[in-house]
Design brief:
176 residues; four-stranded parallel sheet; 6 helices
């Protein structure tokens, strides 16, 4: 139903679609990736492009989206010393940006305008959360940013997590 849904989005006047790429959906077992059938992210992005639409891909590794474990695969639980969503080498070793995204960037003739590298990091136990947007607040964020650039992602990269608390507006005026 991808084509039908994308055409509805386009006919409603939109020119960009956002999509998540759930890690546990595409790599349910360590090292065994599945990008076939309804999981074919490349085919989806090529369809987006063929309809003259753009894409923003939210690849995580953690995406939340009310998806089981936020998209983190269960097999991570069994890796010695691995602490997800922290400045932790075993976690970094397990994560790799999808090469499919690199090939589908707008500067490579694809539809991808932007890529979100992390979502709702504030829920990882970091006091007050590290923020979001393009701010790089700690080694964890810096590591994913550097890795994505080294892997070939050249489009703007961003993080989500800013102000996920009980008072998202805060007390200060917007111009401060």
């Amino acid at each position: 139903m991808w084509r039908d849904r994308l055409l509805r989005i386009k006919r409603a006047g939109y020119n960009t679609v956002q999509t998540y790429a759930f890690w546990n959906y595409h790599e349910p077992r360590e090292g065994q990736f599945d990008f076939t059938g309804e999981k074919d992210l490349d085919a989806f992005l090529k369809l987006v492009h063929s309809l003259n639409l753009y894409a923003i891909v939210r690849m995580g590794p953690y995406v939340n989206a009310e998806w089981d474990t936020g998209g983190l695969p269960v097999w991570l639980r069994f890796k010695p010393g691995l602490l997800p969503m922290t400045d932790n080498q075993p976690f970094y070793d397990a994560v790799d940006p999808y090469p499919i995204l690199v090939a589908n960037q707008i500067n490579h003739g694809g539809p991808i305008l932007m890529v979100q590298l992390e979502n709702e990091h504030v829920f990882s136990g970091v006091p007050d959360g590290p923020g979001g947007g393009t701010d790089i607040h700690d080694a964890y964020y810096q590591r994913f940013y550097d890795h994505a650039r080294k892997a070939g992602l050249q489009v703007p990269l961003f993080f989500s997590g800013l102000n996920h608390n009980d008072d998202p507006a805060g007390d200060a005026p917007f111009d401060l």
